[in-house]
Write a structure and sequence with these properties.
heterodimer; A: 6-stranded mixed sheet; 7 helices; 10 strands; globular; B: alpha+beta; 6-stranded mixed β-barrel; 6-stranded mixed beta barrel
């Protein structure tokens, strides 16, 4: 098996005003290339934090996290940012589009950061691929929730990442929009052969994945 | 792979991000605009005055060059030299005298002129010409008087008055004296007469105190440096002093330069307050951009790109603020130029001076970047996940950014030292500002800790409003530190100025008159002295009369070297000084070293020198001083030091000579009279009637003039401190405005929980008042320390804490924060909770 993501006894403790809070308590898992994995569990069980650890957006307090053979715990903030380029695309529940940029600009940003000369053209094509070819000049505030998430999807997939991480991508959407987004997400993943890790509350979405892992109280438990 | 920062990409992304509008930057722009505007305005005004002085130097001086003599007219060789070198020469005599009418008498500064006056410029009269006004009519010579003097004496044009024994007719009111700026602080308003008409006045006799100025119009292309050198070589040791159009009014120039530098430094304090505003504005702005920064990081942006994006934005915005400030600073003196010019006793040339604008721009940009770097660097360094969570930044800036901040700070201090021209003044003021900032930061931190601690005490149980206020001050995202810093620094500057001003006025108005004499009488001739003293001593209202013979002389050399080369600009050598002589030590003399000369001593000249001044000038017993008295050089050896107290405004001479040293030199006596205030008018009337040539200087009037002059400086300083405070209030308002959203949330939740609007408002008010009081209390501490340091260490005056000024500062601080807090609390408490809570879901 070709492993793209590997965690061993990964822990995450955050400092709060009331003292340290243990969020993840020794997670060990491996994700194979091309696999789709769903993380499910109750609120506060640590699903999103685990995804943040995978994306290198959060630093593990203990244990090891590696992606594509790179130990993420050894990289500094900038090293992680560089590593994400081209390797990972992240989709959030609340979209996190840059409000002062148009849809097209939002999609082009990762390419521009990576120094791609044809950023605008590729962004236009990607936006068209998610059905928003005509909305490139609109700002996030002028788009519906479903449209914003489609822009976010296009932005995550445009650098052709090998790993797509999605944190409750339909959590803020109604059923119809949610279904459309999931179709797009799986379509993109199938088309580009990326690995997909997704946090979700919805059992029917989890069921579309190759494997489902359940979390409770910061640990992986039997699904 | 590491790449250098792509500035074009940073600029492109920064411009996109700026599409969100400038709302978050309004306070930053305002802070910088105010600080830069104040500094630019002061600098422009200073340049305008310097420009005026330099452009009209010859008119102010009354000629291309001037040769000045104390106590005497120019000798024949000196006059011959002037005739040989100048195209035109005009002689002006200056002295103080009493202008006397049948009912009244008052001190006046007399300018006696020849027919050539004024050589340059035009004298302003309310009617007629100078020649007609000064001409003889019905046997009475004419005179010009300033309106204030004529009014004081109740004189109209055509009325008569006396100077000494000579009667004059008031020929016209003098509205503008072209060569007045060189006179400095006079002891009375001006009267102008012809010198020839004073022949019978008995005023300009040997030994009386007068100065002569010879104004020269030189041939075109005359080499001023060469002429100055020639004149000084020929006549310098005879007491001649040279000045020329290049620096016509040295005293005014120095005063304007010093006051300008000081006000600019006060302006820098304002900019430091503005800097706190910049930091809070940048922090608040970065908080709104947390999600964007996190997203950029998720998309692979390195810290330096993010830093570049926001540095470009802050730089552009700071540039806008600085530009607005420069426009304000340049416009104010130009628009208000004619008004300001009418208030100034010297010419000012208003226009666009690039140097002060560049200086203000430098300060503004450096301050903006210095204060923006910290919150920028913190935001950039924070991890993406914690940015998404909206956690407050607790990380330290990168080492490289700390280094850049240190560099900017060095640039700022170096710039201040360079521009102000006085390292002591700049470092002292900036040191004070930084110390105050450090104390305020500690106080702000302490207030938060204290509030957190108090919020957990029992006494707040059942008082949710108090608990909420304390929690808001002590909790995360508290505005307390920014408010205490910005408002506190503004109040501190005001407190220091307030303490110094109050103490200074008190020491002049309260302490001095109780020790100072009522009058100085000068120009008492030897023949008049005994009856003059006897008359005063017989008066029961007079408690004490002191008298001493006096000559005036200039110290030209110390041990054979030019005095100025040895002791620089010490006040003793910068002009002629009163010198006395006595056979035996006058009563009360305290010899601190050496010994007074024996009675009837006739050997080589000896001098007794004031101990404090001798120590300042590093003089030793046995040093030889060359004193030029009436054009004659006297070499005197210092044989004793004695204690002289100048602080009581009584009689004090730096130098006392043995009588043989000045035997035969014409001199007059000076007397100080201590009398009850009620008797002063009668003493003035009787003495000036009996001794018309004796001039009385009322100490009260002199003090009133000094207080007036001080008042102008204090007003200018208070205005500058006011600008600091306004910046502080802007920062405060910015903080209050930025907190509106958080307060809305709080108010909404509290309403859900059953709190009334009044209760919520009271809690918000308590929070504001506590923060303002903390800022005020620290300001009082800073004001006390600053005031004490300036008065004790710089001015050598006693310091007493002035509670009224201090109390006003605390009340002002509380009032300002309370007002801002309440105004910005009105919206949060008036919005329906559902509106707020829906919006935040």
């Amino acid at each position: 098996m070709n492993t793209v993501l590997e965690m061993s006894k990964a822990r995450l403790t955050l400092k709060g005003n009331a003292g340290p809070v243990e969020i993840l308590r020794g997670i060990t898992l491996a994700v194979a290339a091309g696999e789709s994995l769903a993380l499910i569990g109750p609120s506060g069980s640590g699903k999103s934090s685990l995804l943040m650890l995978m994306a290198g957006l959060e630093r593990a307090s203990g244990g090891s996290v590696s992606a594509f053979g790179q130990d993420l715990t050894r990289l500094d903030e900038d090293g992680l940012a560089r590593f994400r380029r081209g390797n990972m695309g992240v989709v959030f529940q609340s979209f996190h589009l840059i409000p002062t940029m148009t849809a097209l600009e939002n999609v082009a940003v990762p390419l521009e950061i990576a120094g791609a000369p044809d950023a605008a053209q590729r962004a236009r094509e990607e936006l068209a691929a998610v059905g928003l070819g005509a909305r490139g000049g609109h700002y996030p505030s002028q788009l519906s929730g479903g449209e914003q998430q489609r822009v976010a999807l296009a932005r995550a997939s445009v650098p052709r990442p090998k790993l797509l991480l999605a944190d409750e991508p339909t959590g803020n959407l109604d059923a119809a929009n949610g279904a459309a987004i999931m179709d797009l997400l799986f379509g993109l993943r199938d088309r580009h052969g990326a690995t997909l890790v997704m946090v979700t509350h919805a059992p029917e979405l989890a069921a579309r994945c190759d494997r489902v892992l359940r979390m409770a109280d910061g640990r992986l438990v039997a699904a | 792979m590491m790449r250098g920062l792509d500035w074009r990409l940073a600029l492109r992304l920064a411009l996109r991000d700026l599409r969100g509008g400038l709302a978050g930057f309004r306070i930053l722009i305002l802070c910088l605009a105010l600080g830069v505007g104040a500094i630019a305005a002061v600098g422009m005004l200073r340049s305008a005055i310097e420009g005026g002085l330099s452009d009209q130097g010859a008119i102010i001086l009354g000629g291309d060059a001037q040769m000045n003599f104390t106590y005497r007219f120019a000798s024949d060789p000196e006059k011959a030299w002037m005739a040989a070198h100048a195209r035109k020469v005009s002689e002006v005599v200056e002295f103080r005298s009493m202008a006397v009418t049948a009912d009244d008498r008052t001190l006046t500064q007399v300018k006696a002129v020849d027919d050539a006056w004024p050589l340059l410029g035009v004298a302003g009269l309310d009617q007629g010409t100078v020649a007609a006004a000064l001409g003889i009519q019905n046997g009475l010579p004419g005179a010009l008087m300033e309106r204030v003097l004529a009014d004081r004496l109740g004189l109209k044009v055509g009325d008569t008055f006396k100077l000494g024994l000579q009667s004059f007719r008031l020929g016209a009111i003098l509205t503008k004296e072209p060569d007045s700026a060189t006179a400095g602080l006079g002891f009375g308003p001006r009267t102008v007469v012809r010198t020839a008409d004073l022949a019978q006045s008995g005023l300009i006799g040997p030994g009386t105190l007068f100065e002569t100025d010879y104004r020269l119009i030189l041939p075109p292309g005359a080499d001023l440096d060469a002429m100055k050198a020639e004149a000084e070589t020929a006549f310098g040791d005879k007491g001649m002093r040279w000045s020329d159009r290049r620096h016509a009014a040295v005293g005014v120039e120095k005063f304007v330069e010093r006051l300008g530098s000081f006000l600019i430094l006060v302006g820098l304090a304002g900019l430091a307050v503005g800097g706190v505003g910049v930091a809070s504005a940048v922090r608040a702005f970065m908080e709104t951009r947390m999600a964007t920064i996190a997203t950029l990081k998720v998309l692979g942006a390195e810290g330096r790109l993010v830093m570049g994006i926001y540095l470009v934005q802050v730089g552009l915005i700071a540039g806008l603020g600085v530009a607005i400030g420069l426009a304000l600073g340049a416009a104010v003196p130009v628009l208000a130029g004619s008004l300001i010019a009418s208030l100034l006793p010297f010419p000012a040339q208003f226009g666009l001076y690039p140097a002060p604008l560049l200086q203000a721009a430098f300060y503004g940009l450096v301050t903006g970047m210095l204060f923006a770097l910290w919150p920028l660097s913190q935001a950039v360094r924070q991890g993406a996940a914690s940015l998404y969570r909206g956690a407050a930044a607790r990380v330290w800036p990168r080492l490289a950014h700390l280094g850049a901040m240190a560099g900017l700070l060095g640039l700022f201090v170096g710039g201040a030292v360079w521009f102000s021209g006085s390292a002591m003044l700049a470092l002292g003021t900036l040191g004070g500002v930084f110390a105050a900032l450090a104390v305020l930061a500690l106080a702000g931190f302490g207030l938060r800790v204290l509030a957190r601690w108090l919020a957990r005490r029992r006494f707040v149980d059942g008082r949710p409003g108090v608990r909420l206020a304390l929690a808001a001050i002590g909790g995360p995202r508290s505005e307390a530190l920014a408010v205490v810093l910005s408002l506190g620094l503004g109040l501190s500057v005001l407190a220091v100025v307030g303490q110094i001003d109050a103490n200074f006025r008190a020491s002049i108005a309260r302490d001095l008159p109780s020790r100072a004499p009522s009058f100085f009488f000068i120009d008492i001739q030897d023949a008049e002295l005994q009856p003059f003293l006897a008359g005063l001593k017989a008066n029961p209202a007079v408690s004490k009369v002191e008298n001493a013979p006096m000559l005036r002389g200039l110290m030209t050399k110390i041990n054979g070297r030019k005095a100025r080369d040895v002791v620089g600009d010490h006040w003793v050598v910068t002009g002629d000084r009163g010198i006395t002589f006595a056979d035996t030590p006058p009563p009360g003399t305290q010899i601190t070293a050496g010994a007074w000369w024996p009675k009837d001593y006739t050997g080589p000249a000896q001098v007794s020198f004031a101990a404090t001044e001798a120590a300042e000038m590093h003089l030793k017993l046995g040093d030889k001083l060359t004193l030029n008295i009436l054009g004659r050089d006297i070499d005197a050896t210092i044989t004793s030091f004695r204690k002289v107290d100048f602080s009581g405004a009584g009689m004090g001479f730096v130098m006392a000579l043995d009588p043989a040293a000045v035997a035969g030199a014409p001199h007059t006596s000076i007397a100080t009279v201590y009398a009850t205030p009620e008797a002063e008018a009668a003493i003035l009337r009787d003495t000036s009637k009996a001794y018309p040539n004796v001039t009385a200087i009322s100490v009260k009037e002199a003090i009133a003039r000094a207080v007036e002059a001080l008042g102008t400086i204090a007003t200018a300083t208070v205005l500058a401190a006011g600008a600091v405070l306004v910046t502080g209030v802007v920062v405060l308002i910015g903080g209050a405005a930025a907190g509106v959203r958080a307060r809305m949330q709080e108010a909404a939740v509290l309403k859900v929980l059953g709190a009334t609007r009044l209760r919520i408002l009271a809690s918000f008010a308590l929070r504001s008042a506590l923060t303002g009081a903390a800022a005020g209390l620290v300001a009082i501490l800073a004001g006390g320390i600053g005031g004490w340091a300036v008065l004790r260490l710089v001015m050598d005056l006693p310091y007493r804490f002035e509670p009224v000024s201090a109390g006003l500062i605390v009340l002002g601080g509380m009032g300002a924060t309370l007002l801002a807090g309440l105004i910005f609390a009105l919206l949060p408490i008036s919005v329906r909770p559902a509106q707020v809570l829906r919006g935040s879901e």
